[in-house]
Amino acid sequence: MPISPAGRWLLHSGIQEPGFGVARYYRADLGRNLPISTEITGYTVSACVYLHSVTGDPEYLERALATARFLTRTAWNATAGVLPFELDPPAFAYFFDCGIVLRGLLAAWRATRDEECLSTAVAIGRTMAADFRAADGSLHPILSLPAKRPVARDPRRWSQSDGCYQLKSAMAWWDLAEATGDRSFREPYEQTLEYALRNAPAFLPGHPDRLAVMDRLHPFLYFLEGLLPMAGDARCSAVMSEGIGRAECYLRDLAAEFVRSDVYAQLLRIRLFADWTSAVPLDREAAECEARHLAAFQDPCGGFYFGRKGGHLLPHLNPVSTVFALQALELWDAASASAESAPLDRHLLI
Asked: Which domains does the chain have, with CATH numbers?
């Protein structure tokens, strides 16, 4: 189980800057970090809360709250109602990033009951609903700052499209409804769900370049994760089942040429969560194969490499790959040790 070395890497490698913002990734070949990303910082909050839930180590909870403070006091501009993609310069805001940060703040709030985390999460949730919704019911993926003007969409670049993957961030609205008791937050999630269900069938392959399809598997699995609040719904469980099968087929077809570690991690995680919710029975043989391949991406320092192309590891130690992988492998260890499905908490999904 990679919890201990991966957790140490997250806390002590320098991927997190002195002010507690987290770099997008570390270039192992150049020996330096890329700029701080609010999205990656949000994932780190969620990861530290998860690590605390597994290990009981108070250092993880302390770091989760310190990282959340960076988001509430440095990254979030309460006056303008803006959470920028990067701070230097604060030129763009992404819908997806806002939802990931919001979920991280809610994770910290559940663990600590810190009201600053909750109040900022509520403010971000309202901004997401007010600023990113387009007239046709879709979501603007990117706004230019400071005017909050929608950036032109590019369907060939998934992060610049309004694709079904946005459902994972929209899940933050559902979580806000649970946290605050304000059921009006469920409405934008439900609207995004309907839009995502209509558009998901065309998301894969979605690109004429075979290797670009591997990159699209990553957001497609975000879509499947975003279905979890509705896993008990027959329509959503059927989509989840079909989606897991599609993702597995594409992954196996492309892996020898190019493969991302986060795709292995996400596919393994959604199998486990879907099984726990009784939406899709666990294929243990496939899960074991994915866990074995995923573990091979871990560096001796504890972090996980982003991917492998042409049989060679790409020189990026990636915090998202790392936290997805450590969670997937820890959950798989628990599941493989028991004949019954291990109890899972959707709120702890990083």
From this structure: 3-348 (1.50.10.10)
Q: Given a cut of 90, is residue 197 above it in pLDDT?
A: yes
Q: Residue 33: its pLDDT value, please?
A: 82
Tell me the average pLDDT across 295-319: 94
What's the whole-number average pLDDT of the chain? Answer: 94
Quick one: pLDDT at residue 341?
Answer: 66
Q: Starting from the edge strand earliest in sequence, which strands make up the sheet with 316-317, in order?
A: 32-33, 26-27, 316-317
Question: In this structure, are residues 114 and 65 in contact, taking their beta carbons and an 8 Å threshold?
Answer: yes
The answer to whether residues 142 and 160 touch, using CB atoms and an 8 Å cutoff, is yes
For residue 315, report the phi and psi dihedrals to the nearest 5 degrees. Answer: -80, 45
pLDDT digits (tens, 9 = 90+) for 148-161: 999 999 988 898 98
Measured distance CA(76)–CA(62) in Å, rounded: 20
Give, in order, the Cα–Cα distances in Å from 140 to each of 143, 163, 193, 239, 265: 7, 10, 15, 24, 28
**Cα 122 → chain centroid:** 19
Confidence at residue 2, expressed as pLDDT on a 0 to 100 scale: 59
d(CA 293, CA 300): 16
Residue type, 60: Y
Q: How far is residue 50 CA from its own chain's centroid? A: 13
Whether 214 shows a pLDDT value over 90: the answer reads yes
The 10s digit of each residue's pLDDT in 242-267 is 999 999 999 999 999 999 999 999 99
Q: Which two tokens stand for residue 298?
A: 């871990």
For residue 89, whether the previous peptide bond is cis, meaning omega lies within 30 degrees of 0, is yes
This prediction has a pTM of: 0.95
